[in-house]
Amino acid sequence: MTNWTSTIGRPYESGPVERVGSTIGRVIDRMVAVSAASAMAAVLTLLDWQRRARERADLAALPDDILKDVGLSRADIEAELRKPAWLR
Fold it and tell me: Which residues, in sequence order, are CB contacts of 73 under 8 Å at separation 6+?
């Protein structure tokens, strides 16, 4: 049996409790990192959908003569406007 005074000055040794705590800490860190990455991906996806909706609205606002110049008809634009934002 060791005396508690014999542990003073010794480098920290991790026992089973510390190892479990360290593992849990690493798991929590990983979960936070994955959650942050998932949140960022969700925000970027929503921004992409918003951009598509804005571009479709801008396209619909173009006059027919400009649409003809780029090879689109009003029917093409109407079909594009009916698509949900998450469809390309």
Answer: 67
Q: How many other C-beta atoms can be found within 10 angstroms of the C-beta atom of residue 56?
A: 16
61 neighbors 82 (Cβ within 8 angstroms): no
Prediction pTM value: 0.61
> pLDDT tens digit string along 38-81?
999 999 999 999 999 999 999 999 999 999 999 999 999 999 99
CA distances from 30 to 43, 44, 61 (A): 20, 21, 47
Reduced 3-state DSSP string for 15-28: CHHHHHHHHHHHHH
The residue with tokens 């029917």 is: 75
What does DSSP assign to residue 12?
P
